[in-house]
Amino acid sequence: MIKRTLYKLFEPVLERVSRRLANKLILLFTIIIILVVASLTFISYGMLRKESVNNSISSTRSNLLLVGRNLESYLDGIGQLSLPQISYDEFNYAILHESEDYASKMYVEDYLKNLYFSRSDLEAIYLYVIKEHKYYYVTKENYNITVRVVEHPPIENLPWYKRALASPFNRSYQSFVKERTPEESQGDYPINSEKSFMGYHRLLRSIVTREPQAVLSLYFNSSVTDEIMKDIPFSDGEHLMYISPDNEPFVVDDREFYLQSEQAGLLEQLTPAQGGRLTWSDTEQKYLVMYDISQKEGWKLVKPIPYKQIYEAATTTRKLSYSIGLLFLIVSVVLVSFTSNRITNPLKNLSLQMKRFSTGSFDAEAAVDGNDEIAYLSRHFNKMVEKTNELINERYKMKIVEKNAVLKALEAEINPHFLYNALQAISTKALKNNNDDIVEMVDNLALTLRYCISGRDVVQAREELKHIERYLALQKARFGSRMQVEYDWNDSLLELRIPKLSIQTLVENCIKHALEKVSSTVTIRIEAHITPAHSVISVLDDGPGITEQRLQQVLSSLQIQWEDRGGEEAEEGDNESIGLKNLNTRLKLLYGEEAGLVIAGDEHGTRIDMRLPRGGLGQHV
Questions:
Q1: Which first-to-last residue range defines the signal peptide (predicted)?
Q2: 3-class secondary-structure state, position 301
C-alpha cells in the first residue's frame, strides 16, 4: 500500500524526467554524485570517529597514569608525614604522660606545630588522646599558629575511627564531597569542609600492647591536588573524579554528576578487568569512561568524556564534507546539464528529422556537427535520406518504363498471331500442293515457336522431350541422315520439372560443336537416370570431342557469377559457351548450389550432364 502511494506520488515527476534523455542523464549523474559524496563522507566520518576515540583513549590514559602516580606519591607522603618516624618512642611517651607531665605536653604541642609548618596544604591538625577523651588541635588564627586542648567525648562511634581501627595500616581517609547528615557530624571535629577536601586519620598504638593510644588527624586543603590535577586536560562536558578504594569521592568536578553516576552503578564497574576504559550512558548522553587504578591501594582516577565531544571534530568534518559535497553537487549538476544538453540536442534534432522523414518529408536533413558517434549517425541518416530519394526516383522511372513495356507488349501480341496465321496459310498451301514435307516442317516450326514464347519458365520433362522431337525434326531437314538421335529415358523422370529449353541448349551444343564441325555421321544420345543424390539428364555425342584446354576454359567460365560477367570484356571463347553458362546459372537459381552442369570430353566425343537434386524444384524455390 505504501509502495503504491509513493508510486502515485512520484509518478508525474518520473514521467516528466523520463521524457528527455538529458533529464535521465542528469538524474543518473546526480545519483552517482550523491552516492559517491555520501559514501566518502560516511567512510571518512567513521574513520575520524574511530581515530578520535583512539587518540582520546591514548592521550587520556597517559595523563591519568601520570597524574595517578603523582597522587599516589602524594598519599604516600601524607602517610609518611603522619608517622613520628625515629621519634616514635618519645612521641608515644609524651602522649602517655602529657596530662601529668608539662614537658610531655610541651613536646606534643611542639611536635604538632612543627608538623603543621612542614606542609603548606595542611588546613588543621587534631591529636585525640583516647584515654583522656580530649584532643589537641592546631589551626591558623590571625596569622598566628596556636595549639589548643579541648575536651571531647569518645570517638569510638565515628565512621572514620572504625575504619582506621579495622585497617591493617591503622589509617583511614575522610571525604567531604558528600554532605554529612547531622548524625554523621555528631561527635566529630568542628572542621570547615569548604576549605578541606580530605581528612587523614592515623591510629597510634602502643608498641607493646598494640592498644590504641591516640589518633592523629590531618586535614588538607586542595592546593596540592589542584596542582597535580591540572596536568589532565579538561574541557566543558568532561568530568574528573578521584575515588578511594571504598568508592568514596575525594575530588569531583561536579557533585551532581557523581551522585548520578553512583546511583547508576558506574563506580562498581570500575574494575581492573575492564582494562581502564568502558562505555557508560546516563539519561542524557553516552560517555567514554577512562580510569586509572593505583596498584598500591586501589585509588581510582576517573575521567568520563562525552562521546559527543570526542566526535566533535568528526561531526564538524562531516558537516564540512556535506557542505562541500552540496556545492560540488550543484556545480556538477550545472556541468552535467550543460553537457547533457550538448549531447542530446543533436539527438533531438535527429529525432525531429526522423519524424519528418517518417511522415513523408523526404527533404529532411540532420545537422552534422563534429566527428563523434552522433555526427556519424546524423551523417548516415542524411545518406539514407539521399539513397531513399534516389530509390524513389528510380522506382518512379521504373514505373514509367514498366507502363511503356506493357504498352509495347500489347502491341507485340499482334505479331505472334500474325506469324501463326502466316505459317498456317503456308501449311494449307503446301497441303493443297501435296508437299507433305513442307507441311510437317511448317507445323513443327509453329509448335516450336508456340512452345518457346509460352510464359512458363519450368516445364515437365515429357513436354521438353516433345519439343526436342519437333526441334530435331527441323534439324533433320538440315543435316539429313548425318544426324542420328537415340533416347534412353527413365519413365519415372517424365514428370520431372526442369527449366524450359534446357535440353534444347544441350542439343544445340552438340549440333554446333559436333555436326557443324564434321561431315560424317554424328549420333546424339539423350538419356536420363537417377542417382542416390541427383536426377541426371545427359546429352552425348560421338563427334570430334573437346580439347583439354578448351574444356578447362568452359569449366572455368561456369564458375563465374552471372553478375560478374561483362559482355564487352568477355573473351570470344566465353561467347561460344554463353548458353551453357546461362543454363548453369538458371539451374543454381532454381535448385540451389547442388544443381549444375558437369562436362566431360575427349577425342571420341562430349558428354554434358545436367544434375538436379533429388526432391525437385520445391526443395529450393
A1: none
A2: strand
Judge whether 4 lies within some domain: no
Name the one residue in this structure whose C-alpha cell is 565531544.
309
Residue 527: inside a domain: yes
C-alpha cell at 489: 529415358
Q: Indicate if the alpha-carbon torsion angle 91, 97, 99, 105 is positive or negative.
A: negative
* Cell output for 121: 596544604
Percent of all residues in the chain with a pLDDT value above 90, rounded to a whole number: 14
> Which stretch, 267-276, 358-367, 400-409, 436-445, has highest mean pLDDT?
267-276
**Residue 291: alpha-carbon gap to chain centroid:** 46
Kindly state whether residues 395 and 502 are assigned to the same domain.
no
Q: pTM higher than 0.85 for the full model?
A: no
Q: Evaluate whether 365 touches 353 at the Cβ level (below 8 Å).
A: yes
- Claim to verify: residue 516 and residue 388 sit in the same structural domain: no
User: For 250-307, what is the HEC assignment?
Assistant: EEECCHHHHHHHHHCCHHHHCCHHHCCEEEEECCCCEEEEEEEECCCCCCEEEEEEEH
Give the cell for residue 597.
552442369
Which stretch of DSSP H or E encloses residue 440? helix 436-452
Range of the domain at 376: 365-412
What is the 3-class SS of 78-111, one letter each residue?
A: HHHHHCCHHHHHHHHHHHHHCCCCHHHHHHHHHH
Q: How many CA atoms lie within 13 A of 199 on its CB side?
A: 25
pLDDT grade for 53, boundaries at 50, 70 and 90:
confident
Q: Cell numbers 573524579 label which residue?
A: 241
Q: What is the mean pLDDT of residues 60-82?
A: 88
Domain count for the chain: 3
pLDDT band at 21 (very low <50, low <70, confident <90, very high): low
